[in-house]
Amino acid sequence: MGLELDELLAMAKRCRRNIVEMTSTANAGHPGGSLSAIDILCALYGSRLRVDVSDPQWADRDRFIMSKGHASPGMYSILHERGFLTADELMTFRELGSPCQGHVDMKWCPGVDFSAGSLGMGLSFGLGVAIAARMQGSERTAWVMLGDGELQEGQIWEGVMAANHHEVGNLKVFVDRNGIQNDDFVTSQMRIFDVAEKFKAFGWEVKEIDGHDMEQICQAISWADSITDGPCCIVAHTVKGKGVSFMENNPSFHGKAANPEELIIAREELS
Amino acid sequence: MSGISTPGASRDGYGAALMRLSDDARVVVLEADLGKSTKSCHFRDKFPERTISIGIAEQNMMLVAAGMATSGYIPFASTFAIFTERAYEQVRNGIARPNIPVHICGSHGGIHTGSDGSSAQSIEDLSIYRTLPNMTVIHPCDDYSAEELTVQLLDHAYPSYTRTVRNNVPRTYTEDSVKNLRIGKGSVLREGGDVAIIACGVLVQEALTAQEELSQRGVEATVVDMHTLKPFDDSLLTQLAAKCGAVVTAEDHSIIGGLGSAVAEVLSSQHPAPLERVGVADRFGESGGADELLQMLGMKSSDIVAAALRCIDRK
Fold this sequence. Notes:
The complex is a heterodimer.
Chain A: H1 5-26, H2 31-47, E1 63-66, H3 72-81, H4 87-90, H5 122-136, E2 142-147, H6 154-165, E3 171-177, H7 186-189, H8 195-201, E4 205-210, H9 214-226, E5 232-237, H10 260-269
Chain B: H1 10-21, E1 27-31, H2 35-38, H3 41-46, E2 51-53, H4 58-69, E3 74-80, H5 81-86, H6 88-96, E4 103-107, H7 125-130, E5 136-138, H8 143-151, E6 160-163, E7 187-190, E8 195-199, H9 203-216, E9 221-225, E10 228-230, H10 234-244, E11 247-254, H11 259-270, E12 275-280, H12 290-296, H13 301-313
Parallel strand pairs in B: 1-2, 1-3, 3-4, 4-6, 5-6, 8-9, 8-11, 11-12
Antiparallel strand pairs in B: 5-10, 7-9
């Protein structure tokens, strides 16, 4: 799948609508961090990741590891675009028996390669996937998405150190730098300072981009693919709740759905 | 690198098992700076390309192992029992919940670890791992059984936790008799009709000594090496409860949550019988010799004898 820029932008808009609809239908979930991450997900799934909807467990597929597992509406909306989930299934989000569990779960949802929900674990899992691929001589790549609040977890830095030590050139990380976590802005909860400099200090190759500029995202993916001798990190500066005015940069919509009145406004803005 | 220490320490059995498993190219070993202690070092020396050094970072180790397991490998990850606990939530959410066959070995379990003191003496590991759905929990009593049971994990469909211990103890099994062991099936070592002593780990040898002491008093005991705490051999236990009418458990672990609790759970719901639990009685250990600590904490054969007699009185 290699979509053109305008097709990726159209896909992102459809995904944004689905993120808002499914969280509002469930009256729960995490729209803010899904909306901040969705442009990156569209670029990855629309132009880069080698996955096969007819064979979700294909051994040599690329792995996408959504470490910030609460951004599950974003993940489900892109999996729907790639044919792993039907539109009806999307709207069962968080219901009993749904493939769309509250947090992404590899045992419940085709196309999901990592069971998330507890922050800080996805990078380590991706490192294991990357080491395994290298040992097997496979070209598959591990792409990991981390939240910026998630960088407060100590395990992240265990993984950052180990990825450089093991010189994994097939491990690529996006940091969704939206500046907001559950309770409030990251700066008020626990400052994480200059994320790019931190990864550089651990020996990673780092690039900073506007995480809503589709062209920049696609270029950054190509840049990441060109790095083969060690891990690389793309710090994507994003806006939490991007695309829905009252959700943008608003900590309240980290883990809250739009109510029926708000949903009407959101639909108009995303039409 | 230290050599294989005098036979009898279950950690040596783990190290030997990894060497036996090495013929299978799917087997990989993960270490957190304690390979010399857990005995994965022998594998590392022979197969460095299949050994992943994680450094002192247990949380990272558990998820790296999980990632490798979903990519066609069978990871064996080891550190001290106590330090696996640091990564308990990683094991819970990253391994047990998605049911990824990662095999964790926690060495230096129990107060038997000795002079390193209470910070190193895990007395709750069996308890916490037993509560996780999908997990298999194993605690062998000597090197031969540790080797045999670890080898049987190769094609095990579930994640597992195996506790080994630091110090040598007399062997319970021979190279032949150990081949009869099966994960999930208790091993009957002595048969008697007055009381059943269900033991695991280093307390199996204490239980066997207790059986002899009881026999001299005219009391005949069954002794079981319950090397697998989960899945638990309910059937064997209820048969013995019916036959003996009194049950004693013996473990180098807190009496809360471990073997004693597993036995109590089965007895209370399936075949009520008097039960006495020998183990660490809700306290932490301290520095000292292994045998000194067993004595101080009431976990010697004489304590098992006393518990058996109390239990028989309660019939």
